[in-house]
Amino acid sequence: MDKIILNKLSVRAPLGAFQWPKPGSEELSQPLVISAAAPLSVELAASSDSLPNSVNYGTLAKLIERVVAGILPGGEINSLETLGYALCTDCLKTFPNLDEINIEVEKPRAHLYAKGAGIKMTAQRGDVTCGDVAKIAASRFYIRDLEFFTVIGINPWERVHKQLIRINVEMDVPLGFRDSRFPLPSPLTPFDYGGIADSVVVFSLASSYETVEAFVTGVARAALTSPSAYSTASGKHLISQITVSLAKPNAIMFASSAEVSITRKLSDLQMPWLPQVTGDTNGCHVAAIALGSNIGEGVANIQQSLMALREIGIKVIDTSFMYHSEPMYVENQPQFRNAACLVETNLTPHELLGALKRVEQAIGRTPTFRNGPRVVDLDIILYDDVIISDEEKIDDSNIVIRRQLIIPHPRMSEREFVLRPLADMIPGYKPPHSIKTILEMFQDIPERNLRKVLSFPCTPLVASLDLTPSCPSTQWFIGEKTYIMATLNYTPDSFSDGGLHATISSAVEYALNAVANGADIIDVGGYSTRPGAAEVSTEDEIGRVVPVCRALRKAGVTIPISVDTFRAEVARRAVLEGGANCINDVRALREKGMLALASELAVPVIMMHSRGTDAGKDNSYEPKGVMASVREELGAEVVKAMETGVWRWNVIVDPGIGFSKTVGGNLDLIRGLRDFTASGSLVLNPHGSHHLGEYISKKQALSSPDDGSVAVLESMPTLVGASRKSFLGKLIGRPQAPPLERNFATAAVNVAAIQQGCDIIRVHDIRDTRDTVKIVDALWRQHAQKF
Fold first, then answer.
1. 144, 365, 725, 742: which is the annotated catalytic residue?
2. Are the beta carbons of 585 and 563 closer than 8 angstroms?
3. Are 705 and 633 in contact (CB under 8 A)?
4. Distance (Å, rounded) from C-alpha 91 to C-alpha 85?
5. For residue 359, how many C-alpha atoms fall within 13 Å in the half-sphere facing its CB?
6. What is the β-pairing status of strands 605-608 and 483-489?
7. Strands 116-125 and 100-108, how do they pair?
8. For a tag site, which of 119, 227, 381, 768 has the least CB within 10 Å?
C-alpha cells in the first residue's frame, strides 16, 4: 500500500498537568512530536503529475499545527489520545480521498528514565449518516527507551556490577471514540502511561534476574498488573496486549545489543498451563515444603508460588514467618527470602515434586548452577512419615523420567533457613529416624543469623486484581527496631485531630512532614472509631480514603500506606486505586468479605482485638482476666484468617488498647505486653508419632480456645496504638483536657510497650516520638545501633 508520510513535526501545546506534574503545567506548552501516515494509492497523482490527486503534506502539516494551536489550557484536548483523535477526525474531514489515517503523538522525555512516550492511532472513515467521521481501528501507547542500570546476567561479574538495560513497551489500549460525541468525549480520564513506566522501573530496579527471558516476562507482568492498567472508574483492565523488548547494549562486544522481545496478554500470566490436580483436593497426605527466592521480589515470588499451588488444587494448611538469610554454600549471590508451608495433597511424592517444578517454571525459574540464585525454589522437606532415596533416572533418549528425590531432605539439619520456618509450624515434630524434634534441631545450630521480615509489596500477586502500587516494596526487620506508624485521620470527628486534615493538601502536608520526621508507615482512616462517632457510609468512606492515598503516592510518599478500615470494599479500593499496601482492621477481619480480600491481596494485615461496634462497651473479662481473654479472642480470629489463606508472615496483631477495655484493663495489657505474643500452652509430646499427618491432627485437636488460638499468636509482630486516648486523660487527672495535652502520657506508654517487645507504635506526634523511640531502642533492642 502506498503512503503519504509526514515525519516528526515538532510543535508545542498545553496538554494539562496529567503526566507532566510541574508547577504551572496546566498553562505551559509542552513539546510534542507528531507524525502522520495516510495510506493512499499514488498511481493517479504519478500518472497525471497532479498534486490534487494526492495529499498535500504541506496542507497536512498546517492542519496539524492549526489543531495544536487551538488547544486551550483546561480544554477538552488534554491528553495524547484526545489530541490524536482530534487530528484523525480533522484529517479525514479535510481529505475526502482518505479512508484511513495513522497518527503518532509523542512527548519527548515524558518520564525521567525514558526518551519518550506516545500513542499510535489508526482511524478509519466512519458512516457519516450515523454521525461518525472517524472510527478508531487501533490505538497503541508506547514508552520508548527506558534506560537504567540494574543487575542482570549469569556471569559472576554480572552478579556484582550493574549494567545498562533498555526497555521498550507497546500497549494496545482500545479507546472507541465516536464523532457523534465530537469534539471529544467528556469526561475522559487519560491513560496513565506514566504509572505503567513507574511500575516497570520500580520492578526492574529491584530485580536481579539471571536471564533476559525471565526479566522481560517479569516486566510484562509488572506492566499488565500495574494500577495504571485498570480504569479507576470501572475497574476494567485497559491493556488488551503488551509487547515488551528488553535489550542489554553491552552484552556482546561487536553487537549494538542483545535483546529479547515478547508479547503477552493478562490471561497469559494466570498460569493456565499448570495442570489441575484431580481427585480429592483436600488430600490425604501432608508435606512440608521449604520456600526460597533471591532474584527479583523474593517475597512476592514466594507468595505467587503458594497462590499457584492453590490454583492447581494443592491445599496450603499452614505457613511460617518470612525470613532474610545470607547465601549458604555459594556466597557470591544476593540474599534470600525464606519461609516454609504445610500442604495437604493426594499426590504421591514424585507427583508433588513434578507439580512444584512446574510452579517454579511458571513463576520464572530458569536452570542455574547448584545452590545458585533462583527466582523461586520449592523443596519437599517432609512427606508424611516416608523415607525416600531415589536417584535421577534418564532414558535412552537422555530424557529425565524420574527426578532425584530424597525425603526427609538430607541437609535439613544444617540449614537454619529450613529449620527456623518449620519450627514456626511444627516445633515438636520428629522427622523419621530422628531422635530430635524440629525445634531441638534448630536450637543445635551454633550460629543463628536469620532475620524475621515483614514485607510490604509493590506488585499484586493475582492477575485478576486491580493494582500494583507505584512505589518500591519495603522490608521491615522485626525485632531490630521500633517502627512508627503516623496516624492520618481524614475525618471531621476523630477524637484527637478531627477536621485537622480536612483537605487533600493538608493531608499530604501532614504525611510529608511525618515522613521527614521519621515515620515508617502512614495509616489513613476515613471513619472515626471513637465512641459515639457518626455513622459513615461505605461510599463516603471510599470518597475520603482513596483520594488521600492516591494523593500521597502522587506526592512521592514511598513508605507503606495502611488503610484503616473494617470494610472490604474500602480496603479493596484503597489498595486497587489508591496505592495502599497494608490493611489495618479494628475488627480483625470479622466483617463480610475481609478474610477473602486479605487472602487475595496478600498484603500485611493488622488484626486488632475489639468487641462489637462500640469501643466503649463490653469491657468485662471475667473470670480469665483481660490478657488471657484478649489472647484467646484475637487468637481465634487469627486462626480463621490463616485457615482462609492469610499467610502467617503477613499478620500483625494489636491488643486493642482503648477498645472495650477499662483503664485497668489497658494498663494490664501494656504492663504485660510481652505475654501477648509469648508461647502458648500448645506443646506436643516429644515422644509422639513420627507421622506428620498425625502430628498435625494432634495439633488441630489441641487447638481449643485455651490452647491453639493462644499459641498461634506466638512471636507475631505487635502494634500498640495508645496515642492520646481517653484513658490517659483519666490517669493524669485531666479527663476533659484536649487530646493534644496527652503527648507526654502517650510517650510513657510507648516506652513501656517497647520495653515489653512492641514492634510498631501508632502515634499522632511523630517528631518527639522518633526521639523517644531512638532512646528506648538503644536501651532495649538487641540489634540497636552501637554508639
1. 725
2. no
3. no
4. 10
5. 28
6. unpaired
7. antiparallel
8. 768
Residues written for the chain: 787
Q: How confident is the model at residue 259 (pLDDT cuts 50, 70, 90)?
A: very high
Of 734, 762, 774, 781, the catalytic one is 762
Residue 361 DSSP SS3: helix
Query: Which residue in 677, 636, 672 sits closest to 654, CA to CA?
Result: 677
Alpha carbon separation from 98 to 53, 81, 104, 119, 551 (Å, rounded): 11, 21, 17, 21, 45
How far from 239 is each of 226, 734, 767, CA to CA, in Å? 10, 58, 44
Cis peptide before 14 (omega within 30 of 0): no
Kind plus residue range of the DSSP H or E element containing 106: strand 100-108
> Residue 762 catalytic?
yes
Check residue 476 and give its pLDDT.
Answer: 95
Q: Using CB atoms within 10 A of its CB, is residue 721 exposed (0-12), middle (13-18) or buried (19+)?
A: buried
537: which 3 cell numbers? 457510609
Give me 184's grid cell. Answer: 471529544
Q: Residues 660-696: pLDDT tens digits?
A: 899 999 999 999 999 999 875 443 333 344 457 666 6
Within 10 Å of residue 14's Cβ, how many Cβ atoms? 20
**What is the secondary structure of 653-714 as a DSSP string?**
EE--TTSS--HHHHHHHHHTHHHHTS--S----TTS-S-HHHHHHHHHHT-STTTHHHHTTT
Report d(CA 522, CA 746) in Å as an integer. Answer: 18
User: What are the backbone angles phi and psi of residue 116, rounded to the nearest 5°?
Assistant: 180, 165
Query: Percentages helix, strand, coil for the chain, rounded to the nearest 5?
Result: 35, 20, 45
C-alpha cell at 656: 486493642
Cell for 186? 467528556
Q: What is the sign, positive or negative, of the torsion defined by CA atoms of 438, 440, 443, 444?
A: negative
More confident residue, 265 or 693: 265
Helix axes 80-94, 57-69, angle to 10 degrees: 140
Amino acid sitting at position 459: T
E-only strand ranges, 364-414: 377-383, 388-390, 393-394, 400-402, 405-407
Q: Is the pLDDT of residue 583 over 70?
A: yes
Residue with cell 517444578: 357
How far apart are the C-alpha atoms of 480 and 784, rounded to whole Å?
A: 7
Q: How far apart, in whole angstroms, are the C-alpha atoms of residue 461 and residue 291? A: 16
Class of residue 706 by CB neighbours under 10 A (exposed 0-12, middle 13-18, buried 19+): middle
Which residues, other chains included, contact 444 with Cβ-Cβ below 8 Å and sequence gap of 6+? 413, 436
What is the distance between the terminal CA atoms of the chain, rounded to a whole angstrom?
A: 75
The model's pTM is: 0.69
Q: Measured between alpha carbons, how far is 431 from 744 in angstroms, rounded to an integer? A: 52
* Contact predicate 493/530, CB 8 Å: yes
- The whole-angstrom separation of Cα 203 and Cα 471 is 9
The three cell numbers of residue 89 are 477526525
- Which grid coordinates are listed for 50? 497532479
Instruction: Provide the Cα torsion 80, 83, 89, 95; round to 10°.
Output: -100
> Can you list the alpha helix ranges (DSSP code H) found in 206-327?
212-224, 298-311
- Tell me the CB-side half-sphere exposure of residue 485, using CA atoms within 13 A: 29
Residues 771 and 482: their CA atoms lie apart, in Å, by 11
Print burial letters for 49-66: b (CB count within 10 Å at least 16), e (below 16).
eeeebbbebeebeebbee
Q: Which residues contact 172 (CB under 8 A, 6 or more apart)?
A: 138, 139, 140, 239, 240, 241, 242
Q: Pull the grid cell for residue 379.
A: 523443596
Q: What is the pLDDT of residues 166-207, one digit of tens each?
A: 999 999 988 755 443 334 444 356 788 888 888 888 778 767
Quote the cell numbers at residue 95: 481529505
Block residue for cell numbers 477473602: 596
Look at residues 289, 307, 300, 299 and name the one whose alpha carbon lies nearest to residue 325. Answer: 299
CA 196-304-325 angle, 5° bins: 105
Tell me whether residue 786 is one of the annotated catalytic residues.
no
Question: In degrees rounded to 5, what are phi and psi of residue 615?
Answer: -65, -20
Q: How is residue 7 written as a grid cell?
A: 515525519
